[in-house]
Specification:
7-stranded mixed sheet, alpha/beta, single chain, 14 strands, formyl-coa transferase, domain 3, 3-stranded antiparallel sheet, elongated, 18 helices
């Protein structure tokens, strides 16, 4: 299989649930050797997010942990902490998303580790960041979406309950930001620098998603509210109803606006003062959408998509998750791939979202069973079979019994 651009980079993932595992998975897709360390007992909490499951394995765990090797270590025992310390001293990168201070209480904080491993890139993902008055507060995606203002601008509008995004943008965004920070720190190290601490949070990942909305407040002093699928600064740019479903139309710039009114058979709107330019269209948005929707409801979504594509107006369907995963474009981009799981055989999971011409990414491994690679990894760090067996017998590590047999 292709090695990927990060071939040779060793990453220890001390992370659970989502933000940290997302970061580790991105690095693993790029070719890094990501060793996932799960807690004893139970492992990553997503293993217990059931249903749904595939062959008894948590679907939630599998979607975020491909391409990793899995170990299970008791972080509460002295022997377990000693094992982890050896792994960390031999790592290029460590990812952790515990609450602030947890690693320090284990004697494994950044300042301690950097003394024996000065090249270590230590990535810390927390709810609110490692500094500030909220640093020690626990944080989850839901909390970050509310705190960042995202929930105040998501939903149908005034008088309706606050709504979070249907996907965990704080968690996934924090994982992406962490991966970006790690890669930047790695470049610095390759250029002759030392390792460093990389610090990001779910809050900051949620805040960066408010770019347009924050721009409005910083310019006007007014906090924008929820406007459904519409854009806060441009129109028409939203979902509209057709005869058999919904269609997204992005005709916000003037050229696309003029193309749109022609293709829907409403050329007179081009000369209507209410819609003369973007500012006018935003001011009269309800009237504009009412007029366009009345026309769009005369034909089905696919009919309109063909007509809009023919004249170059950006448009797309509103698909269900199932429709998306089965779409030819998604399949052509290898965003759904089959991988072999050690216990249940071939399973379909999401693919890598970044493609390279010279160092392609690859899905090399299925998500690991709990402790699947413990023996393999510990042997690479100098433990012999007798030592590994003793650690397993005392409960300091877990071995995958299926693989051992």
């Amino acid at each position: 299989m292709p090695n990927g651009p990060l071939d040779g980079l060793r990453v220890i993932e001390l992370a659970h649930i989502m933000a940290g595992p997302v970061c580790g998975q991105f690095l693993a897709d790029l070719g890094a050797d990501v060793i996932k360390v799960e807690k004893i007992p139970g492992g990553d909490d997503t293993r217990r997010m059931l249903p749904p499951d595939i062959g008894g394995e948590s679907a939630a765990f599998m979607v975020m942990n491909r391409n990793k090797r899995g170990t299970a270590i008791n972080l509460k025992s002295d022997a377990g902490k000693a094992v982890l310390r050896r792994l960390l001293d031999g790592a290029d990168v460590v990812i952790e998303n515990f609450r602030v201070g947890t690693m320090e209480r284990l004697g494994l904080g950044y300042e301690t580790l950097r003394r024996s491993n000065p090249g270590l890139i230590y990535c810390q993902i927390t709810g609110f960041g490692a500094t500030g008055p909220y640093a020690e507060r626990p944080g989850f995606d839901l909390i970050s979406q509310g705190f960042s203002g995202l929930m105040s601008v998501t939903g149908e509008g005034a008088g309706r309950p606050p709504i979070k995004a249907g996907v965990p943008v704080g968690d996934i965004g924090a994982g992406m930001l962490a991966a970006m920070g790690i890669l930047a720190a790695y470049i610095h190290r390759l250029q002759g620098g030392e390792g460093q601490l990389v610090d990001t949070s779910l809050l900051e990942a949620s805040i960066v998603n408010t770019a347009w909305l924050s721009a409005i407040f910083l310019a006007t002093g007014v906090s924008p509210g929820a406007i459904g699928s519409a854009h806060p600064m441009a129109a028409p740019y939203q979902a509209m109803q057709t005869a058999d479903g919904w269609i997204n139309i992005g005709a916000a710039n003037q050229a696309n606006w003029l193309r749109l009114v022609k293709v829907v058979g409403l050329p007179e709107l081009a000369d209507d003062a209410r819609f003369a330019d973007n500012a006018a269209r935003m001011q009269n948005l309800p009237a504009l959408i009412e007029i366009l929707t009345a026309r769009l409801r005369e034909r089905g979504t696919e009919d309109w998509l063909e007509r809009l594509e023919a004249v170059g107006v950006p448009a797309g369907p509103v698909l269900s998750i199932g429709e998306m995963l089965q779409h030819p474009q998604v399949r052509a981009r290898d965003m759904v791939v089959e991988v072999e799981h050690s216990r249940i055989g071939p399973v379909e999971i999401l693919g890598s979202p970044v493609k390279f011409s010279r160092t392609p990414t690859s899905i090399r491994r299925g998500p690991p069973a709990l402790g699947e690679h413990t023996r393999e990894v510990l042997a690479e760090f100098g433990y012999d079979d007798a030592e590994i067996d003793a650690l397993a017998a005392s409960g300091d590590v877990i071995l995958d019994r299926n693989r051992e047999s």
